[in-house]
Amino acid sequence: MKVMVVDDEHDIQLLFDQQFRREIRSGQIEFHYAFSGEEALKYLESVGPADLILILSDINMPGMNGLELLKIIKDRFALKVFMITAYGDESNYKTAMEYGADNYLTKPIDFKVLKQEVLGLQES
Amino acid sequence: MSATDRSDLGSFYQRHYFKVGLTLVAIIVLGSVLLEVRDLLQAERDVEQIYNGSIGGLDLIGDLQYETQEARRLVQYALTTQDTNLQVEYVDQARNQDKVIQNNLDNQRATAVSQQHLQARTRFEKDWKAYLEVRDDVIDSILTGSIKEATRRDLHDGVPAFDKVRKDLEEIKNLYKQDAGRQVLMVQGSFNRSIRNLIIFLLVTVVLAGFVLRMVQKTQILQALRRSEARLHEVIESINEGMFVLDPERKIELWNRAAERSSGKSREDVIDRRLFEVFPELKNSDTGAQVSTGLRGGQSGILTDLQLFGANSDRFFEARLFPFGGGTTVFFNDITERKQAAERQAKLLRDLEATNKELNQTLGQLKQTQDQLITQQKLASLGALTAGIAHEIKNPLNFVNNFAALSDELADDLQKEFDKQKDKMDSDSAEYIGEMLGDLRQNAKKIYEHGTRADSIVRGMLLHSRGRTGEHQPTDINALLAEYTNLAYHGLRARDSSFNVTINSNYDDSVGQISVVPQDLSRVFLNILNNACYAANEKRKNAPASFSPTLSVQTKNLGDKIEVRIRDNGDGIPSEIKDKIFNPFFTTKPTGEGTGLGLSISFEIVVQEHQGELKVETEPGQFTEFIVVLPKNPTVAKGVHQ
Q1: A122 to chain B, minimum CA–CA distance in Å?
Q2: A51 and chain B in contact, CB less than 8 A
Q3: I need a labelling partner for B386 at 20 to 30 A (CA). Which of A37, B57, B143, B272 fits?
Q4: pTM
């Protein structure tokens, strides 16, 4: 399965690659990284969803924020989207749910939980 | 009769008396002048009579004497001269003299008045005639030249005859003299009488004039007095204040117009009647007693709040008493309106005071609210700041914690690989690498541990700023409190087995359900309960064995509010830090044990979210008691949303 991670922090790639080292090695999961909402959309427009089944997106990013991105993706593509944010407040949560987010996780990311959610998605 | 009529009448009397007086004086003066004139005319007539009579007579007699003497002398001249021409001349002259004398005699006749005069004159005329006969004989003798015969005849008959004539004239003269003397006396008398009358009239005039003047003066004074009285009457009538005069028997003698107006009793109704007859309601009333006392006192005084028409009347009067020798003058006024105005004013004043008091209370409340608002504002801005910081910190913390976790895992894997390979290595190096690997693993763990700690702090900070959208719902406060008391106790027991505390609870059943956000309020209770248990337990560590940590939890229904009191018998809060305990990040717990956010969050929840009060009472060394007051019907919650 292919998962796109959208976050303005470049270190997120290092972290995900290491956290999912085994799953990546075994070919169970593949990550594509986009460092802004615009970049993520560009990728989706040029490559298309293809085998992509999940997008993990931060909310607070320069330019297009995660919620805007979520709305566009949910309008145009049939993709699962998990929001991962440091902002665990009600209003962001409500907006995300309104726009159709499939999950809402707060930073610091609990990778045990994230792995379960992501792999559970694959199984289903 | 009006005042003007009286005044006119007064001046009329004045003029009338004056005229009468003046007329009287004029009549008297005129009368006396007429009498005087009459007297003077009489005197003039008298004088004229004297001149016409006696004095004129005297003159004529004097003339006659002279003329007869002359005639006699001419005869004697004729007798004594030798010249015949002269003799003839003298004789002619003597005969001419006869005519003069005859004229004189004719004049004499006109003046003769009295019998005596007539007799004397008749005698004179007879004697003169007798003499003239003798003289004619003598003249004849002379003219015939018989001087001797003539002289003898003259000496013999002429001289005695002429003596008779002379005597007769003398007698007439004397008669005239007597007449003159008598007439002069008469004129004198007339003058004296006239002067006496004049003096008498003058005196009478002066006296009368004085009398009239006095009368006029008296009349004027009388008029002035009458005017003054009329004025007094006018003044009394025009006084805008009720006025009456009581005689010593308390009968009304005077009752002015204002008195009529304000009492509604006309003068005819009250004059010569007793005060208490006029106002029967005064008998056996407080006002009556007051009036009686005032009048008996015989001194000036003011009586107020008099009810002349009885105790049920709504009219009030004020009276001022001015006693004098023959009674009492009373001024009185209807003060009902004044009294009402005063009462209204007093009421206004009372209302104003009440309003003021209320305003002051409101001001106090406003100040309190202002203080609360300032505190809330401070907390809110602090919350906003911390929220910003917290979120920014969360991102790096995400990496710190996750990379630390990864490093830990990697270090574990590395340790396993190393354990497999270390026999193939130099033992010193293996030992050194093993040691470093151990430190590396430990460091990774420590990084993770402290990162997690930082995360919990940040999470606490975010609780402050997180917009509270928790729903208010009716909640049984007693049950909630009991549940969290239990939770706190067991939570602490789980962490520290030596911990123990006696819990005394006293729940007021009438508190019932009130509208709160249970998940937030429970945090408040848990925070306070944890602090209370911690304080009691801390004291136990240093206290004698007899000390028994005690927690008392109670609720109370205050009507429109409820009160929750959580009290511990710990060391209390020193007064110097009492003001800071609600500040964020303020804690007395050792580093790592508390975030210093518990009470500041609790304050925000109670005060902002529930419009309640969070207070603390403490006695250092004795106790600390947190009091949560919650309104039963809070207004719409105003959470601070970031």
Answers
A1: 23
A2: no
A3: A37
A4: 0.39
B405 touches chain A (CB under 8 A): yes
| Length reported for chain A | 124
Bridge partner residues of A63 (DSSP) = none
Q: What is the ipTM of this complex?
A: 0.73
Of B394, B403, B467, the CB nearest to A86: B394
Q: Which domain holds residue A36?
A: 2-123
Q: CA–CA separation, B138 vs B159, rounded Å?
A: 11
Chain B residues closer than 8 Å to A19 by CB: 402, 406
* Nearest C-alpha neighbor of B472 from the set B422, B411, B514: B514
Chain B residues within an 8 Å CB radius of A60: 391
List the alpha helices (DSSP H) in B422-517.
427-465, 477-495
Asked if B402 lies within 8 A of A89 by C-beta distance, the reply is no
Q: What domain count does chain A have?
A: 1
Inter-chain contact A91–B402, Cβ cutoff 8 Å? no
What is the Cα–Cα distance from B264 to B254, expressed in whole angstroms?
15
Residue A57 in tokens: 């997106």
- Chunk chain B into consecutive blocks of 10 residues (it has 642) and report each block's average pLDDT, rounded to whole numbers: 50 65 78 80 77 74 86 85 84 86 78 74 87 87 83 87 88 83 80 81 82 83 91 88 88 89 87 88 83 82 82 84 87 87 93 93 87 72 71 85 89 89 86 88 88 81 61 88 88 82 91 88 90 88 86 92 93 87 80 76 85 91 93 60 34
Q: Which pLDDT score is estimated for B640?
A: 38
- What CATH number has the domain bearing residue A91? 3.40.50.2300
